[in-house]
Design a protein that fits this description.
The chain is α+β, with helices and mostly antiparallel strands. It contains 21 helices and 8 strands.
Length: 511
């Protein structure tokens, strides 16, 4: 029933009279907060109290690490020379958090203060030794960051481009220089497609090409060599120092986004183009050499890259074809691609399906829309909303069931047994003529709505087909004995099937 308290703040042995007194005795007599959670909250509250109106950068991971290093947390405020604030604050923050386990302070404007907080495990009567010691320790670290920053700016990003050829990217896919050329080529194609669709001006292509070419050059800088977490961020700073346009600097800084689930997307169109090109190049390259992720292994973060592509295309409503981008990217690899890239489209569609389910869309509706493999992923949400409206119609169940029946009939039929065009002269039943007339009436309406992107109206127009479709199946035998009549009826169903499934495969909605 005896133990010891804090190594410096407690004297002698402690007697624990009862198990229930353990934590209280340690805290009051031993200067040890035994409970991890209590100690963590004590640190959090003390940091906020000592912030003096500033914002404290205290990520949970750092709080937990520091909590595991101390028994009796005491907060001290320290400072460093203001001259270090000329260095990008991301460098200083990372130095203090990662290397020293300090808590940086931000002003109300979000700028780094030259004051910071330290969580110590001792509480001496003269705190100047503790404060001075921590200030003395952090100074060389900040000086290193300052030195790296000053050295890096002596060379432009463009002058570093040839050095990328000496950095291996992947033993089957070449150097970082070769990779940069592929990303650059794909960025040009994506930018041209955006401009052709009315998004972005003529300068977008040139800006995207330049940003893509320079995006990886900061990997060769001393700062990123010391702090790999700053890749992209330092590229943005150095691009501005080189006098490049801010849109290019932002693109270099943002082209890794989104880096994780919930991360912000690139901030401008140039950055979006380069980020798409960068992620697609990785996906195409890895799938192209058969380096696919497995259930528990994804060393190149291909799932994260695919989800990033999906988010950018959907959330930014980009008028781009996934299939075209993959095809353009594959050309840049030449003979390096040795595997079929069809699984890549499926892989991206799977990430899309998971994202849509997380957003609350019905699984059957997602299946119905993605069954058509829409190439403009930005349309998928609009299609899903249209399907949601369609399923609320009283005619929807009957039309979905009929569509499923039509799909099964057409699957069983030999394509050569289906007439090329529908001939009204071969109609033998009134229900055939009625269905043909209904199709003729609905088709131009649906086509117009589809052309304007109003998927909801296009699907609602199909409601007029319910009665003639029901009458057709009630009164007409599709597989008639006479070959010409059978082929004509199959052609009629084929035309109906084409109209009904332009927005989604409605047969997937049938219960």
């Amino acid at each position: 029933n005896t133990t010891f308290g804090h190594r410096f703040l407690s004297k002698g042995t402690l007697t624990i009279k009862h198990a229930n007194d353990y934590a209280k005795t340690l805290e009051t007599s031993g200067k040890v907060i035994a409970s991890y959670n209590n100690r963590l909250e004590k640190i959090r509250e003390s940091l906020l109290k000592a912030s003096n109106g500033h914002s404290v950068l205290m990520p949970e991971s750092l709080l937990e690490e520091v909590c595991s290093l101390v028994e009796w947390p005491v907060i001290y405020t320290c400072e460093f020379e203001k001259e270090f604030l000329e260095v990008p604050q991301e460098c200083l923050i990372l130095t203090m958090k990662a290397n020293q386990k300090y808590f940086p302070l931000l002003t109300q404007r979000g700028k780094l203060s030259n004051h910071f907080l330290v969580v110590s495990n001792i509480s001496p009567s003269d705190v100047s030794q503790v404060v001075g010691g921590n200030e003395r320790v952090v100074r060389p670290r900040l000086a290193d960051a300052q030195f790296f920053f000053n050295q890096d700016r002596k060379k432009t990003l463009a002058s570093r481009l040839p050095e990328l050829d000496k950095v291996v990217y992947h033993n089957q896919l070449g150097s970082q220089g070769e990779r940069t050329q592929r990303v650059r080529a794909l960025a040009i194609q994506i930018a041209q497609a955006l401009v052709a669709n009315g998004r972005g001006g003529a300068q977008l292509v040139a800006a995207a090409e330049q940003a893509a070419a320079l995006a990886k050059t900061d990997l060769l800088t001393d700062m990123v060599g010391e702090f790999p977490e700053l890749q992209g961020i330092m590229g943005g700073y150095y691009a501005r120092h080189d006098g490049l346009d801010d849109s290019i600097a932002v693109a270099i800084e943002d082209h890794y986004r989104p880096r994780f689930a919930g991360d912000a997307l690139p901030r401008n169109d140039v950055a979006l183009v380069v980020a798409l090109a960068d992620k697609l190049e990785t996906l195409i390259g890895m799938f192209g050499i058969g380096n696919l992720p497995t259930g528990d292994r994804d060393p190149f973060a291909l799932r994260r890259h695919a989800l990033g592509v999906v988010r950018m295309l959907i959330e930014q409503d980009l008028p781009l074809s996934l299939q075209s981008m993959i095809a353009d990217g594959a050309k840049a690899f030449g003979t390096l691609i040795t595997h079929d890239l069809a699984p890549l489209e499926t892989f991206i569609q799977d990430r899309l399906a998971g994202l849509l389910k997380d957003q609350g869309f019905d699984a059957r509706a997602i299946d119905a829309v993605l069954a058509l493999a829409p190439q403009r992923l930005s349309d998928v949400v609009h299609r899903l909303e249209a399907v949601r409206s369609f399923t609320a119609l009283p005619e929807s169940d009957a039309l979905a069931a009929a569509n499923k029946r039509i799909s099964n009939i057409l699957k069983k039929a030999n394509p050569s047994d289906i007439a090329a065009t529908v001939s009204p002269a071969l109609f033998a039943e009134p229900a055939e003529s009625a269905l043909a007339d209904a199709i003729t009436a609905v088709k131009p309406i649906a086509e117009t709505q589809l052309g304007s992107g109003d998927y909801t109206a296009a699907l609602k127009a199909l409601a007029a087909l319910r009665d003639p479709v029901d009458a057709f199946f009630d009164g007409v035998m599709v597989n008639a004995d006479e070959q010409q009549i059978r082929a004509n009826r199959l052609a009629l169903l084929s035309e109906l099937h084409g109209i009904m499934n332009r927005v989604a495969d409605l047969s997937r909605l049938a219960t």
